[in-house]
Amino acid sequence: xxxxxxxxxxxxxxxxxxxxxxxxxxxxxxxxxxxxxxxxxxxxxxxxxxxxxxxxxxxxxxxxxxxxxxxxxxxxxxxxxxxxxxxxxxxxxxxxxxxxxxxxxxxxxxxxxxxxxxxxxxxxxxxxxxxxxxxxxxxxxxxxxxxxxxxxxxxxxxxxxxxxxxxxxxx
Length: 171
What we know:
Helices cover 42% and strands 9% of the residues. The chain is mostly helical. The two termini are 47 Å apart.
């Protein structure tokens, strides 16, 4: 702490050149920043017999400069119609479609999953994932309605949220 500000002073002692030192220091900086929400000042004190040859900065391709946000709720459901990936099709439940078309969309997803899944186990896994993700849009009851007569087994009692709710109810 100085009169002007508070920061974390991070020292690392290194006796040999480490080609990954910049990466390691970057990890430490992110972890410390996340935990303490303070400025981080870092120093490596090199103890080797000759001057260090370690890079002190990450190469440009490894530097963090932010990220892009992909809002699934803004991607039109029709963008998923030609996918052959069950995982991508499952994500389509979070895409943009009118609320009054939810039942039709779910039927389309389930029907398409039947077509593109290679085996019953893959289909069952996809339906389980679809059920979990559909909770984010409060559509899980529609998933259940649309899959209840299918030859799949989803034990909702195995869902951690169900178990937590049951435990809270028992308390």
